[in-house]
C-alpha cells in the first residue's frame, strides 16, 4: 500500500492523550422571562405527557428533563452505515453504543480495549499497560495498569479513520494503531458493514529484539442493565486466514455476535481467552499476558452458557527485530442481522444481509474485511485527497468536512432491505428494491427518523456521497405525502388537537424508533406540522436539487424517471401550500406561530425564510414541468411565480436585507433569510428569482451584523440580529447560533464569491467546537453564550454544501480561464473575489 495512503494525515482532530479542553459548557439553559411566558403552556403540556410516559413505561421522543451533557471524550466512531455504531474516545474508550436501533447508550465499557506487553530478549516483561488513558473505574479490572505517558501519545481523527501514536521509546518501541471503518462514498455494499479494522504498526527503534503482544478484549452487551438478562457464550474459531473468538449475546433481546479476529501470519502467534469475568479484578488474564505474553486459552466455566456478564479476548504476539516494523491486523465485527423497534412486530433485516445473509455472517464479514480493508483505505484516501491537498482551503475546514460526516453512520442510523411482501408491492424500478430503506435521527437526543425540515440541509452529504440513499429516502417521503393517520393528538405548543398525518402534506419525520417507525410517521408532537410553511417547499427543492446535482454521477444519476415519479407528489404539496396565501398575492403567509423549522421562533405574515423557500420552489416547479413537457403546469407556476416574486420584493426588501416577517419584529436580520436562493444556487441557477444586488447586500448585512457583531466573529452566525440594538432576544432560537445554518450560510457566500466571509463565518465556530469546548463527533444543533443544545445533530451535515459551492466556483473559474482574451478582465475579477 502506498505510504501516503496510510500515513498520519496533516489534518483532523489532533490531541494528545492527556488533553483537556479549556472550556466545559453545560446544555442546561434558563430562557429569559418573556420567553418563558410564551413557552409556559408548552412546558405544562410537555410535563403532562412526560408523566403519562412514565406511567405507561414509554419513553418520550424529546427528553428535555434529562439533557445529555457533552463528555468531551469522543474520537472517530466505528462501523459502517446503518449497521449500528460503537463510539471511540480519543483516550482509547469504547463508548456511546448505538446497537439498539435509534438509541444511544453512553456507557464506557472498561473491559473493551487493547493491552500491550513488551518483553526483552531474556523473556522478561519490561512494560505492560492498557492502551488507554481515560480515568478507569476502581471497582472493575483494577489490576489492569495504565502506564502510558499520555503526553507522549497522540491522536489524529479524520473520519472514517483514526491514528493513535504511542511513544514507548523508553522500551525501544513506537506503536501506531490505525482504525478503519468502511464508510466509502458510492460503495453501498462495504459501507453497510458492522465492522472495523485495527492495524497495528510496531516499530522497533532500539538495538535489541523485542517480543511484543497486542491483546484485544471485549465483553457482551453495552455495559448496561440488560447485559445480564440473556445467556452468553463464546467459541474459538479459525476461518481461512483469520483466527479469533466469537461472543454470542443479545442486545435488548436481539441476537448479536461479536467477533474478535486477527489475521494469521507465519511470524505471529495468536492466543485466545474464551472467558473472564469483566466484573472481577481482571488479574487472571492480566497476569497471563504479563508472564507469558499470551493467553493460556482461558476456558469457559463448566456450563456452556453464562447468564450475566462475560468477556473474552485475543492476543497477537510477534518478535520485532531492531529497525523493523511488524503489522498485526485485527478486526471487530458485530453481527446483529435482524432487529425490531420497541412497539413494532416487524422484523427488519439490515442491508448488509443482502450480501452476507441473516445467519452466521460474522466470519464471512471478518474474512471480507481482512481481505478488502486496503482497498477501503485507498478509496477513502482518493475521496479525501483532493480536499486535503487543496492549498486554497483552510485547514480547519478540511478536518471539519470529513469529521462532520460521522453523523451519516453515527446518527442512530438504520438501513434495511425491503421485506418480501413490501417488495412485491413496488415496481422493479423503485430504488428501494436495490438500495433498501434508510433512516437517521434528527439528533442523538431528538429521537425522530429523517426529520425532513432538518434533512433539507443535511441531505447534501447523502446526495454528494451516497446519492442512492437520498433517492431511497425521497421515495419514502413521496409515498408518505399521500398517506394519512387520523390519530388525534394534543400539540405541545398551542394545545391544538390535530390528526397525526394529513394527506397531501410532507411529514415532519418517519417515526420514533421507540414506537414503530416507517409505519407510525410524524412522531413530532410539538406542532401540527400539516400547517408548517417550509416542509412542502423543501420537498420540491430537494427533488430538483437531486436531479440537477446527479446528472453526471455514474452510480446515482436520478434522471427524468425520478422527476416523473415525484411530480404528482410535488404538485399535490404545492397545491396544498397555496392555501397558505391568505391575501391572494401568490405569496404564502405564516400564521403567527412557529410554523417551520425554527419551531420556537414565531413568524407572522409573509416572511423572508418561508416566503423565500416558496418562491424558490415555484421556480423549481417551472423547471421540473418544463423538463417533463408539462406545458400547462409550467405556465401556471410561472404566472404564480411572477406575482409571488413581486409581492416578496414589495413586502420584505428594505434596501439592505429581507425583513424577517411582516410583524413589529420585522427589522430582525435573519441569518437564514437567503435559504431559498442558496438552494437554487446549489441546483446550478443564478439570479432567476432573487436579484443579484439584493443577494449581495443581504449577505454583506448578515456578515457585518450576525457574524462580526456577535462574539467578535468567533462563534458562527447568530440566527437573529437587530441593527444598532444587538442580538434579537425575542425568542429562544433567535439568540442561538445554529451550526448547520452557519454552514449553509457559508455555502451561500461561496456561491457568491465571498470566500473570506465564508471562512470567517465558519472558522470561529469550528474552532469553538473543536478546540475550546470539545464537541467534535457530537456537534450540537445550537450554540448560545456558554451553553449548547441537542448534541449529535443532523443539520451540520450541511457542511457538504460548502464543498459543493467550492467545487462549483473552481469549475466556473476554470471554465472562464478558457474564454477568449477579451474576457480576461472579467476572469481577473473572479480570481480576486475568490482569493
From TrEMBL:
Biological processes, Gene Ontology terms: carbohydrate metabolic process; glucosylceramide catabolic process
Catalytic activity of the protein: a beta-D-glucosyl-(1<->1')-N-acylsphing-4-enine + H2O = an N-acylsphing-4-enine + D-glucose
One cellular-component annotation, GO: membrane
EC number: 3.2.1.45
Recorded family membership: Belongs to the non-lysosomal glucosylceramidase family.
Domain Glycosyl-hydrolase family 116 N-terminal, chain residue ranges per copy: 75-376
Pfam families according to UniProt: DUF608, Glyco_hydr_116N
Domain of life of the source: Eukaryota
Descriptive protein name: Non-lysosomal glucosylceramidase
Keyword Hydrolase: yes
InterPro entries assigned to the protein according to its UniProt record, in alphabetical order: 6-hairpin_glycosidase_sf, 6hp_glycosidase-like_sf, B_Glucosidase_GBA2-typ, GH116_catalytic, GH116_N, Non-lysos_glucosylceramidase
Location of the Glycosyl-hydrolase family 116 catalytic region domain: 436-802
Keywords annotated in UniProt: Glycosidase, Hydrolase, Lipid metabolism, Membrane
GO molecular function ontology, one term from the record: beta-glucosidase activity
Function: Non-lysosomal glucosylceramidase that catalyzes the hydrolysis of glucosylceramide (GlcCer) to free glucose and ceramide.
Lineage: Eukaryota, Metazoa, Ecdysozoa, Arthropoda, Hexapoda
Amino acid at each position: 500500500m502506498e505510504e501516503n495512503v496510510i500515513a498520519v494525515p496533516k489534518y483532523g482532530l489532533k490531541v494528545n492523550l492527556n488533553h483537556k479542553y479549556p472550556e466545559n459548557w453545560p446544555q442546561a439553559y434558563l430562557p429569559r422571562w418573556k420567553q418563558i411566558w410564551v413557552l409556559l403552556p408548552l412546558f405544562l403540556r410537555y410535563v403532562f405527557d412526560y408523566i403519562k410516559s412514565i406511567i405507561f413505561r414509554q419513553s418520550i421522543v424529546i427528553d428535555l428533563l434529562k439533557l445529555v451533557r457533552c463528555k468531551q471524550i469522543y474520537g472517530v466512531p466505528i462501523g459502517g452505515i446503518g449497521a449500528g455504531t460503537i463510539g471511540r474516545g480519543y483516550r482509547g474508550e469504547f463508548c456511546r453504543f448505538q446497537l439498539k436501533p435509534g438509541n444511544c447508550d453512553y456507557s464506557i465499557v472498561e473491559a473493551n480495549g487493547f493491552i500491550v506487553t513488551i518483553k526483552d530478549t531474556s523473556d522478561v516483561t519490561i512494560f505492560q499497560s492498557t492502551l488507554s488513558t481515560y480515568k478507569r473505574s476502581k471497582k472493575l479490572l483494577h489490576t489492569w495498569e495504565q502506564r502510558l505517558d499520555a503526553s507522549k501519545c497522540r491522536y489524529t481523527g479524520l473520519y472514517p479513520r483514526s491514528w493513535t501514536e504511542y511513544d514507548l521509546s523508553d522500551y525501544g518501541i513506537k506503536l501506531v494503531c490505525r482504525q478503519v471503518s468502511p464508510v466509502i462514498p458510492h460503495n453501498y455494499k462495504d459501507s453497510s458493514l458492522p465492522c472495523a479494522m485495527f492495524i497495528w504498526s510496531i516499530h522497533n527503534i532500539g538495538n535489541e529484539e523485542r517480543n511484543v503482544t497486542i491483546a484485544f478484549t471485549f465483553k457482551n452487551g453495552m455495559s448496561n442493565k440488560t447485559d445480564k438478562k440473556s445467556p452468553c457464550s463464546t467459541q474459538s474459531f479459525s476461518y481461512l486466514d483469520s483466527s479469533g473468538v466469537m461472543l454470542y449475546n443479545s442486545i435488548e433481546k436481539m441476537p448479536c455476535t461479536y467477533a474478535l479476529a486477527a489475521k494469521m501470519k507465519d511470524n505471529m502467534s495468536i492466543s485466545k481467552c474464551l472467558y473472564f469475568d469483566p466484573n472481577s479484578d481482571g488479574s487472571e488474564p492480566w497476569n497471563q499476558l504479563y508472564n507469558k505474553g499470551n493467553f493460556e486459552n482461558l476456558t469457559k466455566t463448566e456450563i456452556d452458557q453464562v447468564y450475566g456478564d462475560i468477556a473474552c479476548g485475543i492476543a497477537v504476539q510477534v518478535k520485532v527485530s531492531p529497525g523493523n516494523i511488524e503489522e498485526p491486523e485485527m478486526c471487530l465485527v458485530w453481527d446483529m442481522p435482524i432487529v425490531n423497534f420497541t412497539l413494532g412486530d416487524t422484523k427488519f433485516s439490515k442491508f448488509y444481509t443482502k450480501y452476507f445473509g441473516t445467519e452466521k455472517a460474522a466470519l464471512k464479514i471478518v474474512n471480507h474485511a481482512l481481505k478488502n480493508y486496503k482497498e477501503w483505505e485507498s478509496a477513502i484516501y482518493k475521496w479525501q485527497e483532493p480536499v486535503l491537498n487543496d492549498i486554497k482551503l483552510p485547514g480547519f475546514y478540511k478536518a471539519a468536512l470529513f469529521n462532520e460526516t460521522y453523523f451519516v453512520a453515527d446518527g442512530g442510523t438504520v438501513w434495511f432491505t425491503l421485506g418480501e411482501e413490501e417488495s412485491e408491492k413496488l415496481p422493479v424500478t423503485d430504488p428501494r428494491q436495490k438500495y433498501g430503506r434508510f433512516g437517521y435521527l434528527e439528533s442523538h437526543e431528538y429521537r425522530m427518523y429523517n426529520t425532513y425540515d432538518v434533512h433539507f440541509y443535511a441531505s447534501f452529504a447523502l446526495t454528494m456521497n451516497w446519492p442512492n440513499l437520498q433517492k431511497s429516502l425521497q421515495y419514502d417521503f413521496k409515498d408518505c405525502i399521500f398517506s394519512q393517520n387520523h390519530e388525534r393528538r394534543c400539540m405541545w405548543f398551542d394545545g391544538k388537537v390535530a390528526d397525526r398525518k394529513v394527506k397531501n402534506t410532507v411529514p415532519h419525520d418517519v417515526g420514533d424508533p421507540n414506537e414503530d417507525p416507517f409505519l407510525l410517521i410524524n412522531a413530532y408532537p410539538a406542532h401540527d406540522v400539516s400547517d408548517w410553511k417550509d416542509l412542502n417547499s423543501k420537498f420540491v427543492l430537494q427533488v430538483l436539487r437531486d436531479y440537477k446535482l446527479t446528472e453526471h454521477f455514474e452510480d446515482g444519476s436520478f434522471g427524468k424517471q425520478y422527476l416523473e415519479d415525484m411530480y404528482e407528489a410535488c404538485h399535490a404539496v404545492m397545491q396544498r401550500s397555496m392555501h397558505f396565501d391568505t391575501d391572494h398575492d401568490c405569496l404564502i403567509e405564516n400564521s403567527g406561530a412557529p410554523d417551520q423549522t425554527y419551531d420556537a421562533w414565531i413568524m407572522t405574515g409573509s416572511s423572508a425564510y418561508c416566503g423565500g423557500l416558496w418562491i424558490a420552489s415555484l421556480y423549481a416547479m417551472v423547471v421540473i414541468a418544463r423538463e417533463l413537457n408539462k406545458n400547462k403546469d409550467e405556465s401556471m407556476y410561472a404566472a404564480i411565480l411572477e406575482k409571488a416574486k413581486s409581492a416578496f420584493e414589495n413586502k420584505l426588501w428594505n434596501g439592505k436585507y429581507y425583513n424577517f416577517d411582516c410583524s413589529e419584529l420585522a427589522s430582525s436580520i435573519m441569518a437564514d433569510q437567503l435559504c431559498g436562493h442558496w438552494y437554487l444556487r446549489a441546483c446550478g441557477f443564478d439570479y432567476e428569482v432573487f436579484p443579484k444586488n439584493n443577494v449581495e447586500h443581504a449577505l454583506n448585512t448578515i456578515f457585518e451584523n450576525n457574524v462580526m457583531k456577535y462574539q467578535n466573529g468567533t462563534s458562527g452566525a447568530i440566527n437573529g440580529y437587530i441593527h444598532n440594538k444587538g442580538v434579537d432576544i425575542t425568542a429562544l432560537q433567535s439568540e442561538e447560533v445554529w451550526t448547520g445554518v452557519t454552514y449553509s450560510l457559508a455555502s451561500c457566500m461561496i456561491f457568491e464569491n465571498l470566500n473570506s466571509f465564508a471562512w470567517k463565518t465558519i472558522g470561529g465556530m469550528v474552532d469553538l467546537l473543536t478546540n475550546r469546548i470539545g464537541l467534535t463527533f457530537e456537534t450540537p444543533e445550537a450554540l448560545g453564550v456558554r451553553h449548547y443544545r441537542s448534541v449529535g445533530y443532523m443539520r451540520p451535515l450541511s457542511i457538504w454544501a460548502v464543498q459543493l459551492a467550492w467545487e462549483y466556483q473552481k469549475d466556473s473559474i476554470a471554465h472562464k480561464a478558457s474564454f477568449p482574451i477579451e474576457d480576461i478582465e472579467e476572469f481577473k475579477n473572479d480570481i480576486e473575489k475568490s482569493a
